[in-house]
Amino acid sequence: MDKETNRLVELALAWCGPAFVVGYIIFWAILGHYIPPPNMMGMTPEQMISEYYGKYQTDIEIGMIGCCVIGLLYLPWSIVLATKLRNEDGTLGALSYMEMAGGLLTGWLLAFCPAMWAACAFFATTMEPATIKLLHVTTWFIYDCTFMITTIQTTGLGVYTILNKKQTLFPAWAGWCTIAVGITFFPLVLMPFVPGGPFGVGGTWNFFVVFSVWLFLFFSPYAYFLLKSLRKEEGPALSAAHSR
Predict the structure, then answer these.
(1) Which of 5, 107, 152, 203 is 20 to 30 Å from the Cα of 13, by its Cα?
(2) 3-46: pLDDT as tens digits
(3) CA-to-CA distance for 74 and 150, rounded, in angstroms?
């Protein structure tokens, strides 16, 4: 593959990240009625049906199935980001693979868990409420309590950004921010033990703070600098093409 074609492929993959964010807001947050999510630890099985799955059944079905597709766009974005984390000799090191592996597993989680919630919605009126709640709660435990998957991604990315003094793609402040983002995820382990408050499933910290810092302190800066670097490569490539 020639250099210009490779750049266009990478540019397309880089745009998968913003497409994922927009799509997930539509399918997961809006259609899924997850702003904030239902307080599962403080609701009876019957309330889960009457106040959530039964009330918004069609919206949740469409939204969660949409997430099964759109959630995996996080995967190619993470891969193209990893290809930019190179050693001086051009190879990918351990930190690059940490970012890539964390992104791959995060992408899978972003699609797998909505598939389970979609199943809850499809069978909400035909199965026992206790069974629906069990599947819903189990999936949320997986979704939140495996946060280390994404923390590994942000740590690998952040450490590379800070320690590689010769790279000019990402500023050092972005590295510090993305490491901090990974640290903010740790209170998610409290979610199964509290029925509400800031550390509940829809709490101020475990929902609004966690998702906001992920978007504004990790994803947005790196998506911006990644796209900026690929657009910067366009100028030399076009000049070379015209010279031929």
Answers:
(1) 152
(2) 889 999 999 999 999 999 999 999 999 999 999 999 999 999 99
(3) 12
Q: Which of 159, 208, 169, 177 is nearest to 37 (CA)?
A: 208
CA angle, residues 240, 243, 244, in degrees to nearest 5: 95
pLDDT at 234: 62
Q: Which residues pair with 92 in a beta bridge?
A: 86
Q: Is the peptide bond before 36 cis (omega within 30 degrees of 0)?
A: yes
Report the share of the chain in percent with pLDDT over 90. Answer: 89
Long-range Cβ contacts of 240-243 (<8 Å, 24+ apart): 241/4
Q: What is the pLDDT of residue 26?
A: 98
Across-strand partners of 244?
none
Residue 186: DSSP 8-state: G
DSSP secondary structure letters along 162-225: HH-TT--SS-HHHHHHHHHHHHHTGGGGGGGG-SSSTTSTT-IIIIIIHHHHIIIIIIHHHHHH
Q: Please write the tens of the pLDDT for every residue from 115-150.
A: 999 999 999 999 999 999 999 999 999 999 999 999
The Cα 208–Cα 205 span in angstroms is: 6
Average confidence (pLDDT) over 62-82 = 98
Asked whether the beta carbons of 102 and 55 are under 8 A apart, the reply is no
> What confidence tens digit (pLDDT) does each residue in 192-218 have?
999 889 999 999 999 999 999 999 999
Residue 7: alpha-carbon gap to chain centroid: 24
Q: What would you measure as the largest C-alpha separation in the chain, in angstroms? A: 71
Task: For residues 125 and 231, give the distance between their C-alpha atoms in angstroms, rounded to a whole number.
Answer: 51
